Amino acid sequence: MGIKEQIDRLLLAEHYDPFQVLGVHFSDNDKDSAVIRCFQPHARSVSLLIDGKTIPMERVRSEGIFEATIDRGTVTDENLDPYTYQYKITYNDGVEKTINDPYRFMPILSEEDRFLFNFGTNYELYDHIGAHPGMYSQIRGTIFRVWAPSATRVSVLGNFNGWDGRVHPMRSLGSSGIWELFLPGIGEDEIYKFEIRTTRGDILEKSDPFQFFGEHRPKTASVVRYLDHYQWHDRDWQQSKKEANPYENAMTIYELHPGSWQRDPSNPERFLTFRELADRLIPYVKKLGFTHIELMPVMEHPLDESWGYQITGPFSMTSRYGVPEDFMHFVDSCHLEGLGVILDWVPAHFPKDSHSLARFDGTALFEHEDPRKGAHPEWGTFIYNYGRKEVSNFLIANALFWIDKYHIDGLRVDAVASMLYLDYSRKEGEWLPNQHGGRENLEAIEFIKHLNSVVYERHPGTLMIAEESTSFYGVSKPADQGGLGFGFKWNMGWMNDILAYFEKDCFYRRFHHNSLTFSIMYAFSENFILPLSHDEVVHGKRSLIDKMPGDLWQKFANLRLLYLTMWMHPGKKLLFMGGEFGQWREWNCKQSLDFHLLHENDHHKAMLHFFHELNTLYKSNASLWELDFSPDGFQWMDLEDRENSIISYARFAKNRDDHLVCLLNFTPQTFYNYKIGLPSGSNYEQVFCSDQSRFGGSNAADRTIYRTIDEPYAQAQFHANVTVPPLAGIVLKPC
């Protein structure tokens, strides 16, 4: 193809390699000269600045092609990479500007990085793809890269070129599918997009899949951002995390939506920034005694009502809550106060918004072409193509990104069940079986194992948590032992059973006693976290306090009993915000929590006090967490008293002398001289009771020290006689 034809293609914005036309070109016919060519469609005139000279460039095409022919000796072999020249441009509006030529630079991304990406193992991909401000060959600017293998042309768009896709077309890096362009003079806070021409000739405007920051909704442009400004102060935390064993330590997680925990009191429409949340939220959570904060997705998303689960910018902190450094400050502040930070992470699906990942280069690039594999009918979203190595690499690098750049301590992986099964939420005929004819998504399973293996290899102290609701084998078993490799799994079975039980009138609970006891049958089959999450207090399900039966006093007594039941049960704990003080209203992502209730009603204040003391009891007794995942840490004292709806059991630390005995009464009746089984002949002291008056209870339990009787009872070798308070639990410790 001759130069005229190539220029024609460039002017039509169809050229896949603009470097063949623009920049410095040597003539095969004239060995003594070189042509420097630029395309400036908005310029009145252009001059070439080289070797201390100003050379007017000739407009050779009316559309804005300018050329200058110079002595080849001016661009000697010593400075071929890059050629040291600039353009002085006078634009049509009279503005003058001097720029470096983007088309004088050689390719920057190494062949090794390209190969590893296509192979699916470039785990620091976020350091290479996207927009990266910095210096190249002593010139400041930003390197733009994007993966669009089926595009016929890709350009960078921004205010710096009038959003004209003809001005800054990118260079194709061959079979890698990556496009690259270094734009001198472009720095932080510039907004940009990619313009993509598809094989059908359609023109798409896309946000950067690797953007580190984006415009505030409803705008959708990406923002050039550098993420290494922040000075971290959590070295001690990071070191202690490497040495800690999360399975044998206390873990109570406070789950929250950062946009509705609190809002600006003077302007309820305004979200608090993460710096403001650090000042208000961290002292609150620490005082309550939680060990971790779990944030619903903080990645960029267009729709508030999606709560962050329909993500358009997986590498981008949402602009709703400030800038990236604000979030870094929040995480850093949590660590300095001894709180871990867990992020909800969403690799199961992505939305169909046209500016984002959907049909990114005109093809099903990140998703499957066939909607029977590539779309979620329930959520109206696309499913990632886990079998495509570049997509798998994209997701694994994204998980590592939040751990690396933001020092996140754990990822709670959303909707794992939807990833594992090809027929998830689909009717017959709406899904395709795997190569063996089964319903398991083999590609997703392999991706999950790969993900967890890489995360634990690179960041051993990370908490990888699966929200998985089926009986899939080995979710929290190591991948090399046939499991999925997660560290923990949400116990959705326990959650469904216990909430269904507590919603029942107390009189009928005797007929559903198995709901209290069945969970122990499988409690040690996985590393479980017991969740009472946001999903249980929305969409007509009512708040936790409003689920409880009875009058006002009984509702609060039931809620305290629910929490004590949960905290005494084997497994780590998670509670969604608002539950700690008994919010009446369902959660609404558009409103702050009803903290005013703490000043209007003693019941709510007492509930908050109860939570503080419950977490204090929990953290100070190794028997409640040291053997969470071993049957050695649990023993029934009496599981058969269904007539009275009472259960009792013991929890043990590794040292069996260190144990607690818990008795739970799920009726409003007080029982006197009730026999409670005990595992040892020691006398026992009552160390906690959910019926104490300071919690809003009746204070029916009349003693704190109990003499043990050397006589078997139920499943125990010893017993004592106790007063059992109504809708309450007592916790005993040998003394």
UniProtKB/TrEMBL annotation:
Record-level GO cellular component terms: cytosol
Subunit structure: Monomer.
Gene: glgB
Catalytic reaction annotation: Transfers a segment of a (1->4)-alpha-D-glucan chain to a primary hydroxy group in a similar glucan chain
Species annotation: Desulfocapsa sulfexigens (strain DSM 10523 / SB164P1)
Name of protein: 1,4-alpha-glucan branching enzyme GlgB
Assigned protein family: Belongs to the glycosyl hydrolase 13 family. GlgB subfamily.
Any GO BP annotation: glycogen biosynthetic process
Pathways involved: Glycan biosynthesis; glycogen biosynthesis
Keyword annotations: Carbohydrate metabolism, Glycogen biosynthesis, Glycogen metabolism, Glycosyltransferase, Transferase
